[in-house]
Design brief:
- About 75% of the residues lie in helices and about 0% in strands.
- It is an all-alpha fold.
- It has a domain of about 100 residues.
- Helix 1 runs antiparallel to helix 2.
- The termini are far apart.
- One of its GO terms (molecular function) is GTPase activator activity.
- Keywords: Coiled coil.
- This is RGAP1 protein.
- It comes from Pampusana beccarii (Western bronze ground-dove).
């Protein structure tokens, strides 16, 4: 009886084994795909990590360059302040000269007064960091506007 039961189940067992074998094959193929995906993702991760490391190096260099440029800017601003102070002293000295002394004409005095009011007033204001250079005074002080008097040179040489 048992043998008959096995024979009767035999057709069904065989089909079950085939189904199980097909499931194993599908699982094996799925595992192969997942393994390939894992390799591909690990390679992609390695590329991205290498790119990240390269970008970190670039960022470090850029930060160092910014620091160097900021130091240069601070030195330049300090030099600018120093030169502005010197220019102010020259302007003050020139403005103290009497009008009739022959050093400055009336027109030059008015130009210096205007420059002193506009440029030096702004230059001596509390320091503000700006991205552009104020060149509004440049045309007012061109070298052709101020005549040079050689009479004092002769006195100094004597």
């Amino acid at each position: 009886e048992r043998a008959l039961q096995l024979l009767e189940l035999g057709g069904s067992v065989e089909e079950d084994c085939i189904r199980i074998a097909r499931c194993f094959e599908a699982m094996r193929q799925r595992c192969c795909r997942l393994e390939q995906d894992g390799r591909r993702v690990r390679e992609q991760l390695a590329r991205v990590e290498a790119e990240r490391a390269a970008l970190e190096v670039k960022l470090k260099h850029a930060r160092n360059q910014v620091e160097v440029e900021m130091k240069k800017r601070h030195r330049a601003e300090a030099e600018l302040e120093k030169q502005e102070r010197k220019l102010q002293l020259v302007f003050e000295s020139l403005m103290r000269e009497p009008l009739g002394s022959g050093m400055l004409s009336r027109e030059q005095c008015s130009v210096l007064s205007a420059v002193t009011g506009q440029c030096l007033g702004a230059a001596l204001a509390p320091r503000r960091r700006s991205s552009a250079v104020d060149e509004s005074c440049q045309s007012l002080l061109s070298h052709s506007d101020i005549s040079y008097d050689h009479t004092e040179d002769d006195v100094v040489r004597s």
